[in-house]
Design a protein that fits this description.
single chain, 226 residues, alpha+beta, Nucleoside Triphosphate Pyrophosphohydrolase, two-stranded antiparallel sheet, 4 helices
């Protein structure tokens, strides 16, 4: 009996890496060096290396290291995108990851093939990368309201005004300071470092850090209700 053969789809991994710069949510794009879509801005992505990658998180970590010089960033799987029309090479599957990084963790000077773009003002992107970015921003906004996830954009130690401004950018709304501080005190996901900020233009403020990498809340930090 003849063995039935199957066409293999194109399988890739894409990274939607978000950061905050100049109080704007931005995404890291990489200029493609090869066809299809050579010369176009796109999400950093690539193929799984079976002899090198033990799992998909290692694949996306390798891609971010090779294409953006990054290591140790926050990662979570976003979703899978698949279909016959998303890639001119044929039926394809892309497993997308959401990655969050503080701006200070990025290289001081990005090379000419890598650039940060506002999520709200993207160039024309190939494949379904625009959809992936929109989905990542929606995930961040929805999950961020009920977790400490937005703090992944901050350095290890931060002030309460820095934390509040980060939540405002992620959630897209201004937050009342007293209500916000009351909520974070009740939720108990921060601890003082015992140090103060050294900003020359402002009075030193207490520095805080997370008590665990990501805490899920039973209430929203969004809105201005107590």
């Amino acid at each position: 009996m003849a063995t039935k053969t199957f066409r293999q789809p194109v399988v890739t991994v894409d990274a939607v890496l978000l950061t905050i710069k100049e109080d704007i949510l931005k995404v890291l794009l990489h200029r493609r060096q090869q066809d299809p879509f050579a010369g176009r801005w796109a999400l950093p992505g690539g193929f799984v290396h079976p002899d090198e990658d033990r799992d998909l998180p290692q694949t996306v970590s390798r891609i971010l290291r090779d294409k953006a010089g990054l290591a140790g960033v926050y990662l979570e799987q976003l979703r899978t995108y698949a279909g016959p029309d998303r890639d001119p090479r044929g039926w394809s599957v892309s497993i997308a990851y959401l990655a969050l990084v503080p701006r200070d963790a990025l290289p001081e000077e990005l090379d000419e093939r890598t650039s940060l773009h506002p999520v709200s003002d993207l160039p024309d992107l190939p494949f379904d990368h625009g959809r992936q970015i929109a989905d990542a921003a929606a995930r961040l906004r929805g999950k961020g309201a009920y977790s400490s996830l937005p703090a992944a954009f901050l350095p290890e130690s931060f002030t309460l005004p820095m934390l509040q401004r980060t939540y405002e950018i992620v959630l897209g709304e201004a937050l009342d300071q007293s209500s916000f501080r009351r909520k974070i005190a009740d939720l108990g996901f921060l601890e003082e470092t015992g140090e103060k900020s050294k900003a020359a233009s402002a009075r030193p403020a207490r520095l805080y850090r997370l008590t665990e990498p990501v805490r899920i809340f039973n209430r929203s930090l969004g809105g201005n209700q107590a």
